[in-house]
Fold each of these.
Amino acid sequence: MPDRLFRRLLLVSVLFVAACAAPEVTQTINDPYEEQNRAVHEFNKQVTRTVLKPLTAGAGSGDGKPGFVLKTVGNFAGNVDTPRMIVNDILQANPEDAAHNTVRFLINTTFGIAGLFDPATAWGLPERPSDFGETLHVWGAAEGAYVELPIKGPSTSRDTAGMFVDFFLNPLSTVVPAPERYAIPASNIVADMTSLVEYSDSISEVLDSSADSYAQARLLYLQNRRFQLGQSGPAEEEIDPFALDTEGF
Amino acid sequence: MSLISRRSFVSALAALPVLSMLPRPALALSPPAAESLVDKAVAEINQAIAAGGSEAAIIDRFVRIFARYADESYIAAYAMGPAARQASAAQRQAFSQAFRSYITAKYGRRFREFVGGTVTVSRSKAVKTWVEVYAQVNLPGEAPFAVTFYVSDRTGQPLFFNIAVEGVSMLLQEREEIGAMLDQNRGNIDAVIAQLRQAT
């Protein structure tokens, strides 16, 4: 019962966000909560240093590539998480990605031994990630404000709302029995965490060797997210090679 | 409006679609020319990542590829941003040099992650005054990712002046980074140059 109420509240809040935000092509950075965001960023940096790094040292295979255990855990979580992506593909009226991810799910669940391995990627069917933040974008919601979330890292108000909905969107929750069912929303987080560990070298590079790692992470996330959503590339009017005085450089 | 002028108006209207089909003034840089530059650079990149070797060796190869195919002075000038207006000729030169070693070391290190993969050029498109060449990086066991090379012949020969990986543009990231350094050093360009030298 409280679960159902929570779902309804979520739906209402998400629809509210979607309704009051007009679609627009954003090329700028909208960061009204910069002060709070920077505080969270410092916290995240601490977490990366004290938790992620030792974890990487144990889980990696030493050559910068993820170790076998990490890769397997990531594969399994990613496979459990795939039906949630398919639901989003359908909500976005994207039958091609829905079919792609469905075939992927079937291959990895069978040939990949319940998703422990990822033969689909090797056979040319890499994951096509999808989330409810993207669904909101397709439905016309604007990006909103930039937000840095604890542990999870860079996001936007639209993508944060989407993240909460994603917790309840996996249809496997309806077919899997009770105790295991509760682990399903976590698959999203686990898959996320394994890729954090997997890319921890690049992440540490940005966090530790930047003059302003907050600004670097913000720009990196926003550029990449807008690219994923098919919004236009880097502020093209700003990079005209003929419009700059390069005398002396 | 007299009949004649109306008629010429109408015929001008009729001619419009024809006009738009006439050959346009030649682009400064053609997409195939840009693509062949990127093809050459990519061939060398593929050689470098197939060869592997120590971090120092890979960075060294990257430095040479960068020197030959990248518009280094534009990238440095762009990264410095508006501060360039106050920079003396000597400062510009010193910055350019320090920035070059900083950026090749930084991206050379990342470049190591591509070892064992391949880069494939897929297509190109003329955009405004430059050409964008789209490529894909395939790493074994991972989803391929997109790399875009921005090529112009601003200097008289085709060179790339920006690279974007999955939408993340090197120019924008580096201008943000140098801007942050300038802020930390209260706009002191010499201090930023010293900091860049230290970082490499």
Note: Chain B is about 55% helix and 20% strand.
Amino acid sequence: MSWEAIGEIVYRMLITQTGLTHLWWGQVLMWAVGIFFIYLGAAKHKEPLLLVPIGFGIFIVNFPLTPFMGTTDAGFPEFFRVFFHYGVEWEVIPVVIFLGLGTLTDFEPLIANPKALAIGAGAQLGVFITFIGTLLFGFTLQEAAATGIIGGADGPTTVYLTSALAPHLLGINAVAAYSYMALVPIIQPPVIRALTNKKERLIKMDDLRPVSRQEKILFPLIAVGVIALLIPAVAPLMGMFMFGNFMRECGAVKRLVETAGGALMNIVTIFLGLSIGATMEANSFFTTAKPLVVLSLGVVDFVFCTAGGIWTAKLINLISPKNKINPIIGAAGVSAVPMSARVSQVEGLKYDPNNHLLMHAMGPNLAGVIGTAAAAGMFIGMFR
Amino acid sequence: MDWLLQNTHPSVDWNYALITLFLRFFGVFFILVVIQIALQLSSRSVRYIEGRKLRKASSERAGEVVSPSDKAGADGLDSATIAVIAMALALESQRSGGKASNSNRSVAWSIAGRMNQVRFR
């Protein structure tokens, strides 16, 4: 065999079997994005459970010719596509995550202070404002709804709604939701300071009353009953959330609780993160300006959701001046649990070192989860 | 603003979008307020039922007739047995005399208590 023939074989190998000649600047840029998310999660510990797999998914899928998100010659889905198709497109993984979250959630602060539910509803303001904003940038109604829900700061709900209404935006919406959730301690404090005065920030709230076991057992049944009746579109999501919580509170199925809130949730979280990251291929990311609009309006969304919670807390104080609410806890109405409740605690302590708001803020925080699911249900009912 | 409005997707009907959005924002409030009311009602019911159980239990306790067996100590021993035990412990204490260490003070204290209990009975 001549040297020319060998050279020809090597050349063809380089062209057809390696990614070297197929690499383009968009993919290199996406590596940087992936590594940035890995850095945020692994080094800065910001939402590491999701940002690390998402970042790695973004990184690895942006190598040319890698068989992750396409179909094989035989027509079967490739590795990540299997998880994406059956887990995300079939709306299974967000629901399973909600089951696990239910087993980890203690609704006591919400049951002790039901007024917090109104704050959770008010904190959905940004969702609806962003909906209008995205329409102005050429989004369809479905795309606008899926983008608006980012401000609710609830990852599984964002994934659930986006896969139902605008699956092509799934990657960027999930990434925006989780990365802004990680940035809650940076986004929320200036909004809190801008919308409250010193007198309001110093309000001391009464201690929460103790909640009996019977009340805790009844709550998931009541909540799921109301939600399934009024917004059946999110019954799978909220049904599993409340089922997980019921298992936790009834105390009869400890092994199931441990599995749902531990191993099962961890397994699906790995595949959710990787497959969502894998949807961020450079080819689809750089062909439209929509990802940039989503990222820009995502911040606006979070700001208005925080503001909506604070304004609602103030409104409640106006309507019932007895047992005033510290408006700082309104910021926890976005459902980034427990990050935004922690922000409220830290902000409260800045003005009065003896004013511990954490448990008070957990109420609106949990109400925010239900509120975001309610808003998602409204959107699904409206546009599906 | 005109540019933005021209930029909107042709399928978007602004009247529909705005009206339905307004209604649905208040819809979220409505749903959470319904849950709030249901929650408050259930909490009140649970607390009422628990309160009633507590009241019933305490009234039963107050109205109890003291039976001979109830005269016995909380651990089910009758007063004669308690007296014998107390006597034995007291004798043991006397036998050891002034050698009782600090750690035995608590024993002496409990013996005194038991003897008082016997005396009152």
Note: Chain B has two domains: 2-61, 68-119.
